[in-house]
Design brief:
Layout lengths: L6 E2 L8 E2 L7 H14 L8
Antiparallel strand pairs: 1-2
């Protein structure tokens, strides 16, 4: 969904992350979060 998104650190010393500039578009953000959720894995249970 963000093939050309710039990659920047959120603060000095942090790892680079995608910069989402279109934060005022509610529909776009809903689609983005839905796409991200489907790519995430569930955390492993602690023994």
């Amino acid at each position: 969904m963000l093939p050309d998104a710039p990659v920047e650190p959120p603060y000095p010393g942090a790892k680079d992350m995608l910069l989402v500039e279109n934060v005022d578009d509610r529909e776009f953000l809903a689609k983005l979060f839905t796409a991200i959720e489907s790519e995430m894995t569930l955390p492993k249970k602690k023994k």
